[in-house]
Design brief:
With 124 residues, this protein is α+β, with helices and mostly antiparallel strands. Helix content is 29%, strand content 20%. It is built from five helices and five strands. A five-stranded mixed sheet has the order 1-2-5-3-4. The longest helix has 10 residues. The protein is globular, with a radius of gyration of 15 Å.
């Protein structure tokens, strides 16, 4: 991915490639470190084992690059940071720590629909 995307900055990366997410991200390490896309949407499940990885290994690798793992609750328009996120949802977000406030501001610009109010203090 570094060779393919080296001249194309991006703000969002979406991956659901049947357990090969860590391998693909490792191939984009230089670009991720340089451009630090604000959000990576990825699937995290037992298929990672098929490629010698695990959700914990993927999270540790992303943590080293400055990402934190969370999921988005569309009903409440909030981002949640549970202790073991892959046990709650399969599709997760890796949010660049240094761009977290930007992501939260963008959510605040688009409040939840009436009747789906966000719980106070849950977005961060």
């Amino acid at each position: 991915l570094d060779a393919l995307l080296s001249k194309r900055p991006y703000a969002l990366l979406c991956m659901d490639i049947a357990g090969c997410e860590l391998t693909a991200l490792q191939g984009a390490r230089e670009h991720l470190a340089k451009c630090h896309p604000a959000v990576i949407l990825l699937a995290m499940d037992d298929a990672l084992k098929d490629f010698g990885s695990s959700p914990a290994a993927l999270i540790d690798w992303l943590d080293e690059l400055g990402y934190e793992i969370a999921f988005y609750d569309a009903d409440r328009n909030v981002i949640e940071y549970p202790d073991i996120p892959w046990q709650r949802r399969r599709k997760l977000l890796a949010i660049a720590r240094r761009k977290r406030n930007t992501v939260l501001r963008r959510l605040a610009d688009h409040p939840a629909a009436p009747g789906k109010a966000a719980a106070p203090g849950r977005a961060n």
